[in-house]
Amino acid sequence: MQPIQSRPGFRQMGVRRFGRVNWLGLYTLSRREIMRFLSVWQQTIFAPLMTSALFVIVFALALGQNRDEVMGLPYLAFLGPGILMMTVIQNAFANTSSSIISAKMQGNIVDTLMPPLSAGEILAGYLTGAVTRALIVAAAIATGMALVLGQGVAHPFWALAFVVLGALLMGGLGLLAAIVAQKFDQMAVITNFIVTPLSFLSGTFYSVEALPQPFRALAHWNPIFYLIDGARYGIAGVSDAPVLRGLAVCGLAVALVLFTAWRWLASGYRMKP
């Protein structure tokens, strides 16, 4: 009798049946990640917008009309792009990190690991949610800046490029942080002592040219500085560093972070029992 394994049409267990890309699985995971933050839009979309508006209001009231121009711009026009990018990177990080750490703590991470999805597809699904959330927040803040401050977008392509790179970088870092963390307290430490200080101290509220050495030189090694600087160039048309250098640094940082995330997902590092 012919062995079952050699019969026509028989497929062994574990053999991938979806071709090179499981488009249905990727779409399902991406849709889940998008609907996850849209279902609580008051926290994930509206709250960041309110925080950004409060920053602008506080600085406007505190400084009034007496603040000198920064890089040839009125201070609020200088501040707006920095706040936009700061909000983008914080939300992209929060989207992937909260999804993974919540699934690990609730014990349903298996729902992501068991479906026939490759490491690349899992990574792409989570990043889709992070980038979508970042773009929605960025568009809303940019619209508010245009309506309230009268500030348009000087270079739309560059602004979009740095927003997407920022979402990819911080989405990937959020995934790595959630993989390493084993409980919410550890995740909070990473957010409060690494992500928030970096986003605040990377040129959001000031030009790094005002920093003394060696802090000015150190700032130019920080990819988040280039994200904020690139967003400022895209929106206001001015920058502290060459925009092509910023694009190269951010692109390299994104490639390194996403490759590490892919390797960890492929190996099941701190994800599989």
- The helix tally amounts to 10
Portion of residues in beta strands equals under 5%
Q: What string gives the helices and strands in order?
A: HHHHHHHHHH
Oligomer: single chain
What proportion of the residues is helical, as a percent range?
over 70%
User: Low-confidence parts, pLDDT < 50 over ≥5 residues?
Assistant: none
Structure summary, number of beta strands: 0
Shape: globular
Which whole number gives the mean pLDDT? 87
Determine the N-to-C terminus distance: 40 Å
- What Rg do the Cα atoms give? 21 Å
Secondary-structure class: mainly alpha
Largest sheet: none
Description:
The chain has 273 residues and is mostly helical. Helix content is 70%, strand content 0%. The protein has 10 helices and no strands. It has helices at 23-38, 41-63, 75-106, 110-113, 119-149, 156-180, 184-200, 215-219, 223-236, 243-267. Helix 3 (75-106) packs parallel to helix 6 (156-180) and helix 3 (75-106) runs antiparallel to helix 7 (184-200). The longest helix has 32 residues, at 75-106. The model has no long low-confidence stretch (mean pLDDT 87).
Write the layout of secondary structure elements.
Layout: H1 23-38, H2 41-63, H3 75-106, H4 110-113, H5 119-149, H6 156-180, H7 184-200, H8 215-219, H9 223-236, H10 243-267
Helix pairs in contact: 1-5, 2-3, 2-5, 3-5, 3-6, 3-7, 3-9, 5-6, 5-10, 6-9, 6-10, 9-10
